[in-house]
Task: structure prediction
Amino acid sequence: MADKRTPDQTGLDVLWREEDYFHPSAKFVGQANLTDPSIFDRFALENIPEAFREYADLLSWDKYWTQTIDTSDPPFWKWFVGGRLNAAYNCIDRHLESGRNKTAIHYVAEPEDEAVQHITYQELWVRVNEFAALLKDMGLKAGDRVTIHMPMVPELPITMLACARLGVIHSVVFGGFSGKAAAERAEDSQSRLLISMDSYWRAGKLLDHKEKADIAYDEAAKLGHELEAVLIWQRYPGKYSSPTALVEGRDVVVNERLEAFKGKRVKAVSMPAEAPLFLMYTSGTTGRPKGMQHSIGGYLSYVAGTSKFIQDIQPEDVYWCMADIGWITGHSYIVYGPLALGAASVMYEGAPTFPDPGRPWRIAQELGVTIFHTSPTAVRSLRKVGPDEPAKYTFHFKHMTTVGEPIEPEVWRWYYDTVGKKEAVIVDTWWQTETGGFLCSTTPALHKMKPGSAGPAVPGIHPIIYDDDGNVVPMGSGRAGNICIQNPWPGLAQTIWGQPERFVETYFARYCKDRSSTDWRDWPYMAGDAAMQSADGYYRILGRIDDVINVAGHRLGTKEIESAALTVKEVAEAAVVAAKDEIKGVVPELFVSLQPGYEASPALQEKIIQAVATELGPIAKPRHVWIVSDMPKTRSGKIMRRVLRSLSDHGEAGDVTTLANPEVVEAIRTQVQE
Ligand code: WTA
Result:
């Protein structure tokens, strides 16, 4: 259960003042997809759910749906019931007639001497068909699950779309996560296959990725789950580029096996609208990640609609979302949203600052990128290492997005002035893995921008802020509360895979007044973020209310990191806190106490850091491990993370009167401040 406080994880509410507005340029407004303010009337609360017909109509349906929403099993809403469609057909086939030779994916490898691949819709269609034929030949069928653990290569969306073509449910695990993390997700989803790759480039190194596939296979077996096969794509087709040996009889080199499927075509399977398209695992309050299940019809409608209206993607745009497809942002706004609209979507393999901080701007210049989408962490780091770089290149963005974490006004202004060259609009989009697509953001041609605020809600989303007692926190009150969405929308996850009770408890239980009600008005969705609404109606997101921390826009569960630390035998207790960081916004700091008989040492600190990297992946590595004599605890024995967080941020413990052992605070304070 989320705990009852409403913390300001980032301290934004106290530190940030109200900012001045920026207006979208007449040039932007003149060309925008959405300039008619009546959209907000069309999507008013009283027009929910019917208003979302407008989004569903952006798709091609094999069979049109008969019921907009089925609420008979609350809160497991079913959208567009009776409809049938195929996601891959919508993202590829239907664009062939008018745009066969149009680029679907511009692929930029990290090494600059590797040519950019411009993959047309026709070529994407061929490659997706051939790989789907291969999967089908292996016996994969609609409803089966497949775990994909791949880096940023075109074969990743090809794999996803091949699954979608067959109705197979894909579960993509971020490539930077460990093999063990992939194994847990493969086990949880009962995936038949693991699809991986031999290697990829990151920050100048060709990393061995295949070794993670071996770990994933073995770890899944330890969990009692036997994967039927491990499919390995080659980073360089025709050449196996990994020092890790192939396992005879288990590993399938995809590029070799594909030879037999040249020219093969597979009919897109017509799927019910409410069948699952994919699972995306995300962190929550327990150590067990949640497999958020997204539907075909609802999800695809929602990401197509928001890509059109909020991203303002148009046929001639070159759209670059510099995120990883292994996160929800990449699913919704690199793959499914843009391709559903027939757009040209850029994918970049490597590190944004490799080999130098001018790299993203060279890519933008070379490809003529018009829409750019990234995280505040990337903006902070590009600003820090190359504040004057954007001015050296001739790119011109019309539109820029930030996503995943709050952006400080100062950083926002650099993004606006220097990257956007004062021409581009910025949308600060607040949403979540669970929500499929954007919840709050300015609508770019209709709203003025305010640095540091996500903005009002997007069309069809009706937020409400409740305090812990269920009272509405009014707009302009200066108070924060738990932000909820009053109404269902088609992008909302259908459930947590295999844990329907957890879905109800985590997102709905707190503010549902009548659990037997089949009226969606009784089931507000609780996002798990603290937020406040200014007098102008703009929302400012203050941070998580649960045990989740947001490192560089990546969501990590404190419990997951703590469990990883506890795999080290010397560790008795572990507590993670979110500490402020200049570049990443927030980073984990780990406090541990040891089992009796062990001594603190730098080697032990390193061992604990490594354990976290092995269990979860390098992004979860704590900035520092503090080995303390004891944890500050309440009388009931609960670790007081608040005290640790304050100590790590500014060295003051705050109120310690409820502690059972206040004396440890002073000891920790001295240690942290050394
Ligand atoms: C946070 C990423 C402030 C928030 C799309 C949310 C944000 C969590 C913003 C979801 C934003 C996302 N401003 N905070 N614009 N966008 N967040 O599931 O705490 O990886 O609950 O989805 O990121 O992270 P997730």
